[in-house]
Amino acid sequence: MEPLLAYLHYLSIILLGAFLTAELVVCRAPLTTAQVRQLPRLDSVFFAAAMLALATGLLRLFVYAKGVAFYLPNPAFIAKMALYVAIAVISIVPTRRFIGWRRAVDAGSAAPDAEAVARVRRLLHVELALLALMPLMAVLMARGIGR
Fold it and tell me: Model-level pTM?
């Protein structure tokens, strides 16, 4: 069961990066109505991947892998969790914007202007940059560096 859980954990992280990248690719001014409607769907899959990564990670922490005693005192583990939380908090703004844009377009309003899109794109770039640091923390953590 542990190898399957590890596989699902890694797969969810890959999906997380893929769908965050897809959001960045689609979220480019000028947005079409189709793109405005597509962004919340992409964001939903991004959220599902984040929840799967969290669930499988917690199972690995508490049930499998090296156990709580190995991970919790490790600063790299704490940094990895802080990165995850930071990405989650930052992602609230794009999610709210995507939903708001879709509702506005569905109500007959115009797509968001270039400045609104640019602000969201900056947040997506930050999320991707933070996500790129997570594998480094995982490597350091797995090797016990920082203990």
Answer: 0.92
Residue whose pair of structure tokens reads 């964001």 in the numeric block: 43
Q: Using H for helix, E for strand and C for coil, what is the string for 28-95?
A: CCCCCHHHHHHHHHHHHHHHHHHHHHHHHHHHHHHCCCCCHHHHCCCHHHHHHHHHHHHHHHHHHHHH
Alpha-carbon span 17 to 128, nearest angstrom:
7
Domain residue spans of the chain? 2-142
pLDDT digits (tens, 9 = 90+) for 53-87: 999 999 988 988 778 888 888 999 999 999 999 99
Give the Å distances, CA to CA, from 147 to 31, 76, 86, 87: 48, 9, 23, 25
The pair of three-digit structure tokens given for residue 107, joined into one six-digit string: 């109500």
Rg (CA), the chain: 17
Q: Which residue has the tokens 């953590």?
A: 141
pLDDT at res. 120: 98
Taking residue 115's Cβ as centre, other Cβ atoms within 10 Å add up to 8
Asked if 40 contacts 97 with a C-beta cutoff of 8 angstroms, the reply is no
**Under 8 Å CB-to-CB from 114, ≥6 apart: which residues?**
29, 30
